[in-house]
Specification:
427 residues; alpha/beta; twelve-stranded mixed beta sheet; 22% strand
């Protein structure tokens, strides 16, 4: 694949990029701008994209030119041509004059992203659900996920939410709760990894006074706190083996019994949602997770796609994260080149990594309030100081709650020393 990369308004360089595009029955471009997301079929007739009403695809973005770029489909790919735009057209990290794209190519124009897909697996006639409230991103994969969440929200059965670390599995769990009949009752979140091993059963099921050293008062436990509502168990794969039979009994609708309690327990009126970044079937094979509990949990499964598989959402997510950070770091805007850099990165840490990179990049752009490509590059290389100044005391307390009060675990999640994190909690 060849790209003509613009180095200045008066010169350009063409480089060769290896690609192996195969023939396809057609191409679709997914457009995400300030008005939302939509899909448009491409053809061999050149399609102009811009803000002018006369453009074939009109975008809502004041950083896009009236006639910004042209996309033309062929049997083996999509031609992308900048037509004298003021802010440039970017394919990955390169500002281009002309390029060839294939499935998965991300084109950035202003604050708008265009993602090329093969029409073999996607049709513009497919009806897609509306995005979930409070979850940024309107890509095809996230809209399909929204439909699955709404479909499963009405069930009372457990749901296993799978996905890499940092993909937002707890947000999906909260959406399942908010879209379902238990929305008016409690949502209780427990991070299993953050629980001290000897206190797991007590935290989940409660304990009687004097049942073990330190049990100075009776405790109800997470199941009791979530009565009538939803209990979310994050990183369920780390649940100790000795606690797994009790969880299985609760899931089967039998009873929950406090540690040290005599007699029968209480029936649990709780919907359990569990999340994992690990392959539970592999942990079953190693003997670290009970097979019967695994099969009880995997009846209904939602898989949250990693950020690299929904690159069209990166601009929307980045703007929302910067909005959340504005109180601490001030307002910031991304240049088209910066958004191109962000869209080209693979994000092994997903949304959590994106937030940290934006923190570091924002810290480097205090003079202009504009985050440019160089700021993103340095942030990705971790050339900048710690992100501590971007972490608010409110967010620190949220992290502490998410980690069940475990200070060390919360500090690790914040990528901060434990002493610095403790000081931030007292701010």
């Amino acid at each position: 694949m060849s790209l003509t990369i613009e180095e200045s308004p008066f010169s350009s360089t063409t480089v060769e990029i290896a690609s192996t595009p195969g023939p396809t029955t057609g191409w679709i471009v997914e457009v995400q701008d300030e008005a939302g997301a939509r899909r448009v079929s491409l053809s061999s007739t050149p399609m102009t994209i811009g803000t002018s009403p006369s453009a074939d695809v009109v975008v809502s973005d004041d950083t896009v030119s009236s006639r910004h770029c042209v996309l033309t489909a062929s049997s083996v790919g999509v031609s992308i041509e900048d037509i004298g735009s003021r802010n440039g057209t970017f394919v990955g990290t390169a500002r281009i004059r002309q390029a060839w794209g294939s499935a998965g190519t991300v084109v950035t124009i202003g604050r708008t992203t265009l993602v090329v897909s093969a029409a073999d697996s996607l049709s513009t006639s497919d009806a897609l659900p509306d995005p979930l409230p409070g979850i940024a991103g309107a890509s095809v994969s996230m809209r399909r996920l929204a439909g699955q969440v709404r479909r499963l929200a009405g069930h009372g059965l457990p749901v296993l939410i799978a996905g890499e670390s940092g993909t937002g599995k707890e947000l999906i769990a909260r959406a399942l709760h908010a879209e379902g009949p238990r929305r008016s009752r409690a949502f209780v979140a427990i991070n299993v990894t953050a629980l001290p091993r000897e206190l797991v059963e007590s935290e989940l099921f409660g304990h009687e006074r004097g049942s073990f050293t330190g049990a100075h008062a009776r405790r109800e436990g997470a199941f009791a706190e979530a009565d009538g509502g939803t209990l979310f168990l994050d990183e369920i794969g780390d649940l100790p083996l000795e606690a797994q039979p009790k969880l299985l009994r609760a899931l089967d609708g039998y009873e929950v019994r406090r540690v040290g309690a005599a007699g029968a327990g209480q029936r649990a009126d709780v919907r359990v949602l569990a999340a994992t970044h690990a392959r539970l079937d592999q942990r079953v094979a190693r003997g670290d997770f009970r097979r019967d509990l695994f099969h009880r949990l995997e009846c209904l499964v939602i898989t949250v796609p990693p950020l690299r598989e929904r690159r069209g959402d990166i601009g929307t997510l980045a703007r929302e994260l910067l909005r959340q950070l504005a109180r601490e770091i001030g307002p910031r805007v991304l240049t088209p080149a910066a958004l191109g850099r962000l869209s080209a990165h693979d994000w092994p840490g997903n949304v959590r990594e994106l937030r940290n990179v934006l923190c570091r990049a924002a810290d480097a752009s205090t003079r202009t309030a504009r985050i440019d490509a160089e700021d993103v590059d340095r942030a990705l290389r971790r050339d900048l100081p710690t992100i501590a100044k971007c972490l608010t005391s409110h967010r620190a307390r949220e992290l502490l709650r998410e980690n069940a009060g475990n200070l060390s675990a919360a500090a690790r999640a914040a990528e901060m020393p434990r002493t610095s994190f403790r000081k931030l909690l007292g701010a």
